Structure formats: structure tokens, C-alpha cells
Amino acid sequence: MLQDQQILRIPGPSPIPPSVQRAMSQPMIGHRGQETSAMLQTISSKLKKVLGTSQDVLILTGSGTSGLEAAVVNIVQPNEEVLILISGAFGERFAKICDAYSIKTHQIDVEWGQAINPQDVKKYLKDHPEIKTVFSTYCETSTGILNPIKEISEAVHEASEALFVVDGVSCVGGVETKMDDWGIDVMVTGSQKAFMLPAGLAFIAVSEKAWNKIKTNSRPRFYFDLVKYKDNILKDTTPFTPALSLIFGLEQVLNLMEKEGLDLVYKRHQLMMNMTRAAFKALDIPLLTSDEFASPTVTAVQPNDFNSEDFRKVLKKQFGLTVAGGQQHLSGKIFRIGHMGYCSPADVLQTISAIEIGLNLVGRKTELGKGTAAAQKIYLEQGVIV
Ligand SMILES: *Cc1c(COP(=O)(O)O)cnc(C)c1O
């Protein structure tokens, strides 16, 4: 097998475009100089479009979870109660962060593979006026669910005065995100998923209403104090040394997104989801999620007649193709295919046809080409560029 070819089809980290890789290898520059300021200025206006906000997008050095923790420590005041909407492992992460700060949490838990129901959120908030902040994941990476975040946001604001904080780490940049229009108060995302970069940057944008709360919040914080980031970005700089190599890469990522056109980026992700789902349906292998709440960035598959761990090993050995396993209680029960960021419909066809071979190798007799044909058909129906 070709040793240095990696076909990385996991929901993050995701492959890096060659031009982004090259951009990241530029020589180091001074972070307080004019070049860095100019770069941050260019990046700033483009990032706002990706998050769908007119607010400044703050850039932290850290993996996605640093952004989640920053949201918690800036937004939640001491003695305040919060509601966490949990549809999988990343909803739980918000709860664990709150636990670490001894914040009292209320939780709405749905079965893994289901989406959060906005009506349940509305009812819960009406019954619990003490709740001041609501946390939710947008794409729940552990199950491949895209929560109806606009509707949940409406429910939060209709039922309460609470702020709404969203973890968009595994989908912003790949699915439409309208932070301002949808009334999201804090939007967090990260670099290694749909943003086509290595891990190491977290992006966070904050509504006017949320800023008012942050400024008066007495909870201690230092590196994660968003006020410092806000004060600095107004002067086109950062409070601490930014991860400049990643910022070089980010500038190029945003160029690529702009050249393709954000609407077409979102369409491509939708298409890759439809192709992937059609393939598994044609192969008669169950999907974990319904079509209605499926994420355009990751698809979870729940086989009932072969072992998903053996299957993953075969794909890795034969093709250098990595798909992800399940998390926690779904470990060994599902596998997950990432189709986000630097991933095209052609990559999806490659993945599906390799999967058909893998299925036969683990003894799951499968007619070759059946899933690939279903994906090809979707491309002809929905993907053709005219
Ligand atoms: C990947 C991911 C994160 C962040 O994880 P890190 O390992 O800290 O980058 C957070 N939320 C979701 C939904 C994710 O998919």
C-alpha cells in the first residue's frame, strides 16, 4: 500500500488543501507588526460571513474545547443556573465543563441519533425561569445529527430572557450559519473540521446582549477573558501571540471559500451527504439518523449484519482509508464518515466504492457498484455543474 497516502474520512481532523498547507509554511513574522494587523483585518471581515454575524469574530489559540470553555466562563455568572441540550458526546462536554466550575446544570437529554425538539426547550424554560443560559450543539458529531438550531434559538427567546450559546465546531464553514438572524448569542467553532485547518484555533462571536453580560460577569478568568480579545481585535491585534502559521492557513482557507462561493460550499456539503446516505440505503445498511436531521458534514452508519470495527480495520489496511468509530455507548456499534471541508463528491465516490470492497472482505456479501451507482445517480440529479 502507498504509505503516505491518507484518505481521511473522519469528522475531524479533516484533510488540508495543498494551498493551505503551503500558506502555513511561510516564514514567521512579528505578531505586533503591520503585516499581521493587515492579515487579521482581511480575515476578520471574511470570518464574519462564515459565522453569519456583524460582530467581531475572536480568535483563540486552542482546540475547539477551549472555545467552549471560554463561552462558559465568560457567559455564566457565579450562582447562575444553565440548561444544556444534550444529543450526544459534545452536548455532554458542555455539561462537563460546567461541572468543573460547579455550575448548576439542568439538562434535556435525547436518545443518541435524535435531534433536540424546540418545543421541549420552550416548555422546560417556561417551567424554569431561573435558567439564564442555554447551551446546544449545532452538529452533534458523535451521531451525525444537525440540530434545528434556528428553531431552538427561537424557542429559547420566546420562552425566556436566557442567552443561547452554540457549539458549531463540526459544521460551521460547511453548513449555513446565520448567527445574527437566528438570534444566537455566542457562536463557537474551531479550525480542524469544516475549516480545513489543523487543530489549534477556536473562533468565537458574541452578540450585543451577551457582551453586556460578559462585561459585568465577576467569574475569574484570564487567558479566556473575551473582553481582552475584543479590545485587541478592534486594533487589529490579539492579546497574546496568535498561532501565526494557522492564521496564514486561515487566510487561504477563507480565500478558497470565497472563490467557491459560500452558498456553493454549503451545497457541496449537502450533495456529499445525499450521496453518502443514498449509497447506504441502496446497500441496505441502516443509518443512525433520519433524513430530516442529518448533518451535511458527517454520516453515522449503524450496521446490523457485520462488525463495524473489523470493517474499519479492513478499510485502513486495504486503502489507507480511515472512517471513525462510535463514541461511548455507540463504540463498536456505529461508524462515522466525515465528508466536510476539503472533500468533494469525487472523494465520496472513492470512499463508497472502497467501502463496497471492504464489506465483501468482512464477509458482508454486497453487489459491487450498487452503493456507488446510487451516489452517482444523486450526483447526476443534484450535483452537475452547468
Ligand atoms: C471536534 C468537536 C469539538 C472540539 O473538540 P476539540 O478536540 O477540543 O477540538 C467540540 N464540539 C464538537 C461538536 C466537535 O465536533
From TrEMBL:
Domain Aminotransferase class V positions: 28-328
Pfam families assigned to the protein according to its UniProt record, in alphabetical order: Aminotran_5 (PF00266)
Required cofactor(s): pyridoxal 5'-phosphate
One GO molecular-function entry: transaminase activity
InterPro entries recorded: Aminotrans_V_dom, Aminotrans_V_PyrdxlP_BS, PyrdxlP-dep_Trfase, PyrdxlP-dep_Trfase_major, PyrdxlP-dep_Trfase_small, SP_NH2Trfase/AEP_transaminase
Domain of life, source organism: Bacteria
The keyword Transferase appears for this protein: yes
Keyword set, alphabetical order: Aminotransferase, Pyridoxal phosphate, Transferase
Family the UniProt entry places it in: Belongs to the class-V pyridoxal-phosphate-dependent aminotransferase family.
PANTHER family attached to this UniProt entry: ALANINE--GLYOXYLATE AMINOTRANSFERASE, AMINOTRANSFERASE CLASS V
Protein name: Pyridoxal-phosphate-dependent aminotransferase family protein
Source organism of this protein record: Sporosarcina siberiensis
